[in-house]
Amino acid sequence: MGSKNIFLKSGTTLVVSLLFLVNVSFSQKSNLKIGSWRGTLKLNDSTELPFNFDVKYNLGIYSVVFHNADERIEANEIALKSDSVFIKMPLFDSEFRCKNLGDSLKGIWINHAKKTKNIISFSAKNNESERFAFQPTKTLLLTERYKVIFEPGTKDEYFSVGTFTSESGRTKGTFTTETGDYRYLEGVSANGKFMVSCFDGSHAFLFTAIKKNDSLIKGVFYSGISGHENWVAIKDNTFELRNPDSLTYLKPGFTRLDFNFKNLEGKPVSLQDEKFKNKVVIIQIMGSWCPNCMDETKFLASFNDAYKPKGLEVVALAFERTDDFAKAVNNIERMKNRFHANYEFLITMKTGADQASEALPMLNKVMAFPTSIYIDKKGIVRKIYTGFYGPATGEKYIQYVEETKKFVEKLIAE
């Protein structure tokens, strides 16, 4: 997502000597109850962000599976010691540290990728599956599309398209902006209320609003404990955002991209290297902390496997939130291994949209993570795509996949 949006705004460091292990010997006292759980993050004195997860146990190993609508995120780096439980998230540099009270957990969630306000109080109850307290309405299937304005009437105003499907009041969908989407949101839309949330290990989102006729009013968007935006929406089936191909572009006088960064082995890599000659190249501007980048990496991993034999090379430029090269490599390797991404990842040792723009001065600006740059066999930049419409956007994602296939096949055939 772009730097304009609230959840790219970047603590206390807690020290524990416990190493995270997948295989651990458990005492009876440390057993974690299996089944469904409802977790909450306390954002302020009156607001809690709810999410759901399952605890599983198989062959002596615990795992925790987080739910967001159709998404499932499995964490299997679980450590138990006496009555303490430690859960390390699988892709993002964050973890839970809590006390096991049998039917409940109490503790904190720490997002190490953030430098400030990165610790949030956490609690969870076993044998609960409802995300929000909710009394079902009559069976009704609705698909609603909204024109959404975040921070209306301010200098920070920006637009979005909200698309949600509700069945008997239970709702799932997402908000799509010009720099990406808010991924899988789940909650309720009934009885005059709209409430959806998401927890993916990097971002904790809560959207609330009042339903009034064809509008959503008095909307509030919480992003962890540091982010807070107002929003409104009105049903609109025709409103469209600007074309993602038009937002980032080469400055006048430039036709090519140039860079020189180290790969995960510390070897410098440049587009002038022999491996890229007479190849179609996709440059992925990304970071391991970015959920939209996770979605794009998953797509590019399979796309690269399919088209590399035909003459495609994919190169990721990683803008990590650390100045430690070894830590940056470790973060990227976790993502690379998770999605079996068999393409080159380079560590830029820079972070944020401003530094990304500095690292690639031939561009007018980098306004979103991820951003993808398509280069033809002659080394000419042919398209720059801002953001990524992931699977949570439904038809938008399907359209993106088809258009990308056609465009790359065209470049390969030239």
Task: Give the key terms.
Lipocalin, 3 domains, 4 helices, 14% helix, mainly beta, Glutaredoxin, 42% strand
Written account of the structure:
This protein has 414 residues and is mainly β. It folds into 3 domains: 14-126, Lipocalin; 141-235, Quinohemoprotein amine dehydrogenase alpha subunit, domain 2 (Lipocalin, Beta Barrel), CATH 2.40.128.120; 244-413, Glutaredoxin (3-Layer(aba) Sandwich), CATH 3.40.30.10. It has 4 helices and 25 strands. It has helices spanning 291-307, 325-338, 352-359, 395-413, and strands spanning 35-44, 47-58, 61-68, 71-75, 77-81, 84-88, 94-100, 104-111, 119-126, 141-150, 158-167, 170-177, 180-181, 185-190, 193-199, 204-212, 215-223, 227-235, 260-263, 268-270, 280-286, 312-318, 344-347, 371-375, 381-386. The strands form 3 sheets. The protein has a 9-stranded antiparallel beta sheet, with no helix packed on it. An 8-stranded antiparallel β-barrel has the order 10-11-12-14-15-16-17-18. Strands 20-19-23-22-21-24-25 form a 7-stranded mixed beta sheet. The two termini are 32 Å apart.
List the helices and strands and how they pair.
Elements: E1 35-44, E2 47-58, E3 61-68, E4 71-75, E5 77-81, E6 84-88, E7 94-100, E8 104-111, E9 119-126, E10 141-150, E11 158-167, E12 170-177, E13 180-181, E14 185-190, E15 193-199, E16 204-212, E17 215-223, E18 227-235, E19 260-263, E20 268-270, E21 280-286, H1 291-307, E22 312-318, H2 325-338, E23 344-347, H3 352-359, E24 371-375, E25 381-386, H4 395-413
Parallel strand pairs: 21-22, 22-23
Antiparallel strand pairs: 1-2, 1-9, 2-3, 3-4, 5-6, 6-7, 7-8, 8-9, 10-11, 10-18, 11-12, 12-13, 12-14, 14-15, 15-16, 16-17, 17-18, 19-20, 19-23, 21-24, 24-25
